[in-house]
Write a structure and sequence with these properties.
Layout (H helix, E strand, L loop, with lengths): L8 E8 L7 E8 L5 E2 L3 E2 L5 H18 L6 H5 L4 E4 L8 H8 L7 E4 L4 H20 L1 H5 L15 H13 L11 H11 L16 H10 L1 H10 L6 H10 L2 H13 L1
Parallel strand pairs: 5-6
Antiparallel strand pairs: 1-2, 2-3, 2-4
Helix pairs in contact: 1-3, 6-8, 6-10, 8-11
Length: 261
């Protein structure tokens, strides 16, 4: 927002719902390039699309209360020029959802930080894979799995969830987790002259979906050999990986993503 005297006013906000940290939102106001003026830290219910819109609307309420004299949040919002967010799913529709909460018939601009062609490709490919999965009746396939999948929308597709699960199971970044098998697989590779490196894939917003697919395809035979020799590795992630390995379309989808990415 730009004030009448030309000052650029920026409202910065971020929330967290991490385990052992808490669920809260912190925010502040920058006027031009001066130090931030902190706003109250508030508890939040979560980070769904609706939650994020409500947090942004609350920010305008706090801004309005801080004005002298106080201003209506909807009037403040009319002066907004732009929303700048990352491109995670729950932020994508902020410019649509906030005015609806304020009963306003307008939409301000929204741009995404770190937006690039790789990002667009990753999201498009994952959405395409999800469409194929729905056409295949993937829910019927999952009913035969050893474990129930809690599908996380941020992974975009079941294949995306598989990539996420497999990298978590063998990533050296999660060796502090009891279900992680990075140490065991590395020891197995050293004893048998194999070598591979797995990084921790979180979601496609960072553009690493093709890279993660390529790495997992390269290490697929090694990981399968390790799992076949160690049936005692039977935690939920390992069972999910074993189930998905049996789906031919999984490897095909990963190969397409890796090749085009």
């Amino acid at each position: 927002t730009r004030s009448k005297d030309g000052a650029v006013i920026t409202h910065a906000s971020d929330s967290t719902t991490k385990k052992f940290v808490g669920k809260f939102n912190v925010s502040g106001i920058h006027i031009n390039k001066e130090s931030a003026l902190p706003l109250p830290t508030v508890p939040v219910a979560g980070e769904s699309r609706e939650d994020i819109a409500e947090q942004a609307a609350l920010g305008y309420q706090l801004l309005g209360d801080a004005c002298n004299p106080p201003k209506d949040p909807a009037e403040l919002y009319k002066e907004t020029n732009l929303h700048l967010t990352d491109s995670v799913f729950h932020n994508k529709f902020l410019a649509e959802d906030v005015p609806k909460l304020m009963n306003l018939d307008l939409e301000v601009g929204q741009v995404f930080c770190s937006t690039h062609t790789g990002l667009g490709f990753c999201r498009c490919m994952n959405n395409s894979i999800n469409s194929i999965e729905q056409s295949m009746g993937i829910k019927n396939v999952m009913e035969g799995f050893m474990v129930e999948i809690d599908f996380d929308k941020k992974n975009g597709s079941i294949v995306g969830q598989f990539v996420d699960a497999k990298t978590k199971l063998f990533s050296p970044d999660l060796t502090h987790k009891p279900w992680n098998r990075a140490h065991g697989s590395k020891r197995f590779c050293k004893e048998n002259g194999h070598h591979y490196e797995i990084f921790l894939y979180k979601d496609e917003r960072f553009g690493c979906f093709p890279k993660a697919c390529a790495v997992l395809l390269y290490s697929n035979d090694i990981i399968n050999e390790y799992l076949n020799l160690h049936p005692e590795v039977d935690n939920k992630l390992a069972c999910l990986v074993r189930d998905m390995e049996g789906q031919e379309y999984t490897m095909l989808a990963m190969a397409v993503v890796a090749a085009f990415g």
